[in-house]
Amino acid sequence: MPSRKRQWWLGSAGLLSLLLAWWLGVEVLGSGQALAARFSPQATFASLFELLGSAQLYENVWVSLKRIVISLLMALLMGVPLGLLIGGSRNLEAATTPAFQFLRMISPLSWMPVVVMLMGVGDQPIYFLLTFAAVWPIVLNTVAGVRALDPRWLQLSRSLSATRWETLRRVILPGVVGHVLTGVRLSIGILWIVLVPCEMLGVSAGLGYFILDTRDRLAYSELMAMVVLIGVLGFALDAFARGLHRRWAHAG
Question: Quick one: a GO biological-process term for this protein (predicted)?
Fold first, then answer.
């Protein structure tokens, strides 16, 4: 069997096993409880198909994806230049590494009370928290990309009397793009995890808001449908990031 086809079958078997474990968990742990039936795969997928015909669902998905994209762009605009600067200077790397390692180990969610007090509720604190979460993988992978550059390319650039801008544009940036895309993929995973609790900060749209709404309405099958949808969308975003990385690596 071809490798790609075998991987597809194995992946499908893994998903079916997960679905079976979900069904067994509800049947065993929720045996005799009427409430447990609302969390079953049957009820969840029935609610999911109903939600797919609702314009409200697509509005919330669009809002969440917009927050992801904008936050990722802001993280790139800050993280890539900062990573290039740090990667090009041993002294700057030594000066910033302890502070950056300290900051990146603080969960972005722990900043939520502080950010809400300073910025209030709404989109502004969400963008801040998401950007804070996404910037560290991009910075660290950009630094790693600069360090991994072949010194002979830099020597060749100097021997050809290339300016700093030409060296940056022709040598450094093409050499670090693969590492930056690795950081982007890691950032997307972090963003998707942090997004849902961030959207519970008093906003009126988004996947996190919609989950709170289903809870308040006691629509538990819809709540589980949203959990499944979040997993599907996150899987699709990661697959997109992996595809970009593979295409760049293949082109390189």
Answer: cellular response to sulfur starvation
Question: In the chain, where are the structural domains located?
Answer: 38-251
Q: Hey, what are 122's tokens?
A: 């709404």
Query: What are the backbone dihedrals phi and psi of residue 193, each rounded to the nearest 5 degrees, phi first?
Result: -75, -40
Residue carrying the six token digits 């030409």: 166
The number of beta carbons lying within 10 Å of the beta carbon of residue 231 is: 12
CATH architecture of the region 38-251: Orthogonal Bundle (1.10)
- The type of residue at 67 is R
CB 211 within 8 A of CB 228: no
pLDDT tens digits, residue range 152-165?
A: 777 777 777 666 77
Tell me if residue 163 falls in helix, strand or coil: coil
Stretch (H or E) spanning 158: helix 151-159
- Residue 191 tokens read as 């963003």
Q: Residue 88 has what DSSP assignment?
A: T
Distance CA 132, CA 75 (A): 8
How far, in Å, CA of 13 to CA of 174, rounded? 39
If DSSP codes are grouped into helix, strand and coil, which group holds residue 195?
helix
**Six token digits for residue 128:** 């801040």
pTM exceeds 0.70 for this model: yes
- Give the dihedral of Cα atoms 115, 121, 124, 125; nearest 10 deg: 30
pLDDT in tens, 204-247: 888 888 888 888 888 888 888 888 998 889 888 888 888 877 77
Q: Comparing C-alpha atoms, which of 227, 140, 225 is closest to residue 192?
A: 227
